[in-house]
Automatic annotation (TrEMBL):
It comes from Rhodopseudomonas palustris. This is DUF1192 domain-containing protein. It holds the Pfam family DUF1192. InterPro entries: DUF1192.
Amino acid sequence: MAIEDEDKPKVKVSHEIGQDLSLLSVEELDHRIALLKEEIGRLEAAMTMKRATRAAADRFFKT
């Protein structure tokens, strides 16, 4: 393992896909849903930007 890997802070995962939900309260589930909706928005924004970049490159190289 590289030394750089040891220096990186560990990211706490607030939700894991497929995780057992039986021990979570309604409030915890609501919080996780809100976090996941925010993440979906972030992913959609990134995808939109990448599509725009790709479209610009396609237009540039077609000329």
